[in-house]
TrEMBL record, chain A:
Protein name according to UniProt: Sulfurtransferase complex subunit TusB
Native organism: Billgrantia campisalis
Pfam family, one: DsrH
Gene3D superfamilies: DsrEFH-like
Domain of life: Bacteria
InterPro entries per record: DsrEFH-like, Sulphur_relay_TusB/DsrH
From TrEMBL, chain B:
Intracellular or extracellular location(s): Cytoplasm
Protein name: Sulfurtransferase complex subunit TusD
Primary localisation category: cytoplasm
Domain of life: Bacteria
SUPFAM superfamilies attached to this UniProt entry: DsrEFH-like
UniProt-listed NCBIfam families: PRK00207.1, sulf_tusD_dsrE
GO molecular function: transferase activity
Length: 96, 130
């Protein structure tokens, strides 16, 4: 299992399409930095193909005033959870 | 686990370096080892010896240095990316006939081969790009 890390939102970058296209059936996707905008109900549809494997970083949501505004399909993790996700993955791939 | 981080974002203008520092502290708090932080592309500006940010802002250069002092983390800087951006240690400054230097230990100018070694030798290599 690979952890994919995306720091761009679907509203301003198409990088998410490359990330999704490269993901295996068990791979997970973590949204960080401006990427957390993709976890909002208005944008989360772009990540339908990875439902249940989609995460967003709490600190970056909070820094943007968005903590608590995530779609219910997104699992919110703090930076400790970010480290844990990297422990559970065989390797990580960062998309930007 | 043994971790290494690759930082490709400059300090202050983008979030990458700040994200990497936060991740570094979190992995150490979970009991892991941070072997090295490798600075590449504009990330080499994190090694600027003369950085003097306002006192009420995070001092990234000092924060990286603290990782080295407290946890033995190596701070490796791609020499090719550094030289073309004016980041030279004493040896390189002398070699290029420059007065003064802008990189000092514990930051070390090194080659991309070291990055390959980190990828091969560490359990996890996590990249933070702008």
């Amino acid at each position: 299992m690979i952890l994919h890390i995306l720091n761009r939102p679907p509203s301003s970058s198409l990088t998410y399409r490359e990330a999704l296209a490269s993901m295996g059936p068990e791979d997970r996707l973590l949204l960080i930095e401006d990427g957390v905008l993709g976890a909002l109900p208005s944008q989360v549809r772009h990540f339908e193909s990875v439902t249940g494997r989609l995460f967003a970083l709490r600190e970056d949501l909070a820094a943007r005033g968005l903590d608590g505004h995530c779609d219910a399909a997104v699992q919110v993790v703090d930076v400790d959870g970010f480290v844990q996700l990297t422990e559970e993955a065989d390797k990580t791939v960062s998309w930007s | 686990m043994r971790y290494a981080l690759l930082v490709q974002g400059p300090p202050y203008s983008r979030q990458a370096a700040h994200s990497a520092l936060r991740f570094a502290r979190a992995l150490l708090a979970r009991g892991h080892t941070l072997e090295s932080v490798f600075f590449y592309h504009d990330g080499v500006y994190n090694a600027a010896r003369l950085a003097a940010p306002p006192q009420d802002e995070p001092h990234l250069v000092d924060a990286w240095r603290a990782l080295h002092d407290e946890h033995g983390t190596r701070l490796q800087v791609c020499i090719a990316a550094a030289l073309r951006r004016g980041l030279l240690d004493e040896r390189e400054a002398s070699r290029h006939g420059k007065t003064g230097h802008s990189v000092e230990p514990p930051f070390e100018l090194t080659g991309l081969g070291q990055l390959i070694d980190l990828g091969l030798g560490c359990d996890r290599l996590v990249t933070f790009s702008p």
